[in-house]
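Sanity check

After download, print the first record. It should look like this:
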Amino acid sequence: MKTKLTDITDVVRSKNSGPYELTLDIMFKTFEDFEKVCAAKAINEKLICDLYKITPDKIINIIDFKPAKSIKVTIKRPICSGDLGETDVYGAQQHAPLLDVVLDL
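Expected structure tokens:
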């Protein structure tokens, strides 16, 4: 079944995880949806690499965190926060590619 990620989440956000990393938080509405996505391994290395146009070595981790019914993805920032040419000092706009994701559950 095709499901839009934003239909089953309460929060999809991004933020700095230090000046050299970004964290993407995906927080689900229900444990059932969280467990379906985790069981399908729908948030995976290939998806993140495709969405963010990065190679697997730029992914620091993808963690399923059951107590918060959340998935946390940490990636290396392409440009250090605040560096010349960097356009999102806080990393707060980097979740946008996740907003159009459709999962096959």
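If your output differs, re-run the checksum step. Summary of this record's structure: The radius of gyration is 14 Å.
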